[in-house]
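Trying the structure run again after the queue cleared.
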Amino acid sequence: MHSAPSQNPALAASLILAATTFIAATTLLAKALGTDALGAPLHPMQISQGRFMFAFFGISAAVLALRPRFQRPHWGFHIGRTSCGWAGITLLFASVAHIPLAEATAISFLNPVFAMLLAIPLLGERVGPWRWGAAAIAMAGALILLRPTPAGFQPAALLALGAAAVMGLELIFIKKLSGREGPLQVLWVNNLLGLLIASCAVLPVWQMPSAAQWAALAALGLVMACAQACFINGMARADASFVAPFSYATLVFAAVYDFAVFGVVPDWVTVLGAAIILIGAAVLAWRETRPRPAGPPPASV
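Done. Tokens:
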């Protein structure tokens, strides 16, 4: 077990907002790498491999400088968490090359919904009408973004949906790891394992990046490391119910970046679907963190 940092809501909010700017920037860089913006498009698995490689270098430098005391890692939980994280980020990077960043980001916000559904068989949790209702609202927003008509359906949106599902499973492993190890240790182990998995998976599709692509891959990894560090430290300094709404700013920054760099303007379908997903996710986050009275375990909530 490690000692928790002191509570500081203002600092926590600032860290989460900083994390959202970094996370949105990673999807922007992934889109540039997955299209012809910087040269011949790279395969999503090569983009995720670069993300883990340079993030590992950055976090290793922090470990060498800070020299934290590491505990014995729980390798089973780490391998499960990292495998899901690698698969989820690869699917997300594949999707952003074909659909607007705002859409892919909004669909990825379904991961707590999938985590809720997976927690029923995997963690034995009980789900009541409030959480089922929140999940239904969020899934309705996803259905809108999928545009299930012959003229509007975008197969790439299914990649983002798959990313949300796998990331939901990752949240189950994160819950298992919660409180067991220090944040820097978790980050280092996660990116070490992610680098190993991604390096094996990328071998059949690896190609030599251009100089601009190498720079973008390095920026992607280092920015992701910064995002992870800000998010973990922000979550540790305030209640989840307080910081959770700030994480939704990722969607705003993704839309701004997409417009500034690629000139993409979200249409009304994107805005409507994203808004509905955020409402469902917000209701679910509120219900998950709502204080419950002491005493016997309540019935479904």
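The chain has one domain: 9-289. Worth checking whether this holds up in the mutant runs.
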